Amino acid sequence: MTRSFPVAPWRAASMFVVLAVAACPITSAQAENDAAKPAAAEKIARGEYLVTIAACNDCHTPLKMGPNGPEPDMSRRLSGHPENLAMPEAPTLPSGPWSNSFSATNTAWSGPWGVSFTANLTPDKETGLGKWNQRTFTDTIRTGRHMGRGRPLLPPMPAPMYFTDADLEAIFVYLQSIPAIQNRVPEPRPPAMAAAN
Fold first, then answer.
1. d(Cα 5, Cα 11) in Å, to the nearest integer?
2. DSSP string, the chain
3. For residues 120 and 128, is the Cβ–Cβ distance under 8 A?
4. What gap in Å lies between CA 181 and CA 121, rounded to an integer?
5. Could you give the maximum distance between any two Cα atoms of the chain, in Å?
6. Taking a C-beta distance cutoff of 8 angstroms, is the pair 188, 116 a contact?
7. Does 63 reside within a domain?
8. Which of 137, 166, 139, 127 has the alpha carbon at shortest distance from 56?
9. CA–CA separation, 64 and 45 (whole Å)
10. Is pTM, for the whole model, over 0.70?
11. Has residue 1 been placed in a domain?
């Protein structure tokens, strides 16, 4: 004959809690991840705001002709100079107050420095910033050099930007959140006189 012992109500309740927790465990990593989501969303929103007010789209998003004239082609947002738009040699400007020219897409610029093409800022791993990290991005903006240590950035960059490190982090997080667009921007061209030598 088996004896059964009554279970105290408090013991039954504690057993229920233990079973419920075991059935759906919440790890500290999950709790941290859930807490980080609003912070990441705020950082992305801040980055989008900064990219907008700093007019990054003005040069890094190609213009297209719309019903009222040139307008940004948002299907190619922040993807830089279109790789399928081969640019002829830049026009030679007479000496005087006109010192540079730019393409109809506003993504190729010509002047005494040569010809520069606006970069692909999307997170494409092969042609954009997909392999960059926060430090590389910040160093590029701070030093005015490609990847923070390479060739000098060419006009219209580096634009004088007075961003804090937190601002640059938000911008980079935002740029990593937008759709990746594969678009290989051409290498800059040297000035015509340097190319002739």
1. 12
2. -----PPPHHHHHHHHHHHHHHHS---HHHHHHHHHHHHHHHHHHHHHHHHHHTTHHHHHS-EEEETTEEEE-GGGTT--S-TT----PPPPPPSSS---EE-TTS-EEEETTEEEE----S--TTTSSTT--HHHHHHHHHHTBGGGTSSBP-TTPSP-----HHHHHHHHHHHHHSPP----PPPPB--HHHHH-
3. yes
4. 9
5. 112
6. yes
7. yes
8. 137
9. 26
10. yes
11. no
Total residues found in the chain within this entry: 197
- Residue 15 falls inside a structural domain: no
The count of structural domains within the chain is: 1
Question: Is 152 inside a domain boundary?
Answer: yes
28-73 pLDDT per residue, tens: 566 555 655 668 899 999 999 999 999 999 999 999 999 999 999 9
Q: Which domain holds residue 45?
A: 37-84+100-188
